[in-house]
Recover the amino acids of this structure.
């Protein structure tokens, strides 16, 4: 599940955005000011950030600069400032998208999904997910490496999708167990090691994307 930060000082719109993205499967943190937005961004590595520009404390441009100085994440400005100079300035500061109010929540959702996939190294074409030499057909749970079909057990497929969704994030064994096996799983954390070993073997050279982080867990690079 992707996690996004929404910084919007209009109470009604903030509530609409929080509800809309939650219903569409996102974890959301929301705030009405730029100072708290910076604090949130310092404590959590988000998959995407939506910023209003005119906010109390720090405006959206200041928040954008703050986040950009710390890590790379897709940022969307969502603002009533629609002059050409405002839009150009927004992109120059570091925004990936600039959306003016009023706007369509469905179109915004499409932009959010497209940006997250791009930042995670995903190319989506004709319903297929392409990650370098790995091609995934989510509808059929089919995987190919360099065009050659690969047979994965259900949990190995779930692991692959979980890693791709959390590219570059170090994941502990407990986190993987919780998200892939579920909180009701009553087994050992070494179950993760066993399945990752099988997944690496099945993927061949592409299995090198999965790196072991000593005494912690794994990361997909």
């Amino acid at each position: 599940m992707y996690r996004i930060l929404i910084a919007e000082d209009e109470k009604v719109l903030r509530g609409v955005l929080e509800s809309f993205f939650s219903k569409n499967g996102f974890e959301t943190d929301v705030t009405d000011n730029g100072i708290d937005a910076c604090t949130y961004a310092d404590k959590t590595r988000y998959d995407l950030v939506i910023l209003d520009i005119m906010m109390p404390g720090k405006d959206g441009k200041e928040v954008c600069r703050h986040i950009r100085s710390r890590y790379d994440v897709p940022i969307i400005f969502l603002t009533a400032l629609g002059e050409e100079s405002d839009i150009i300035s927004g992109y120059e500061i570091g925004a990936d998208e600039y959306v003016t109010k009023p706007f369509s929540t469905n179109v915004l959702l499409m932009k959010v999904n497209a940006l997250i996939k791009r930042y995670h190294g995903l190319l989506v074409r004709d319903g297929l997910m392409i990650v370098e030499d790995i091609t995934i057909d989510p509808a059929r749970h089919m995987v190919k490496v360099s065009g050659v079909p690969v047979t994965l057990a259900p949990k190995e497929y779930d692991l692959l999708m979980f890693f791709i969704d959390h590219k570059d994030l170090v994941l502990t064994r407990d986190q993987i167990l919780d998200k892939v096996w579920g909180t009701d799983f009553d087994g050992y954390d070494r179950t993760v090691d066993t399945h990752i070993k099988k997944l690496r073997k099945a993927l061949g050279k592409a299995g090198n994307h999965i790196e072991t982080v000593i005494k912690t867990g794994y990361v997909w690079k």
Notes: The domain at 124-220 is CATH 1.10.10.10 (Arc Repressor Mutant, subunit A). Helices lie at 11-23, 34-43, 60-68, 84-93, 105-119, 154-165, 173-181, 190-203. The radius of gyration is 19 Å.
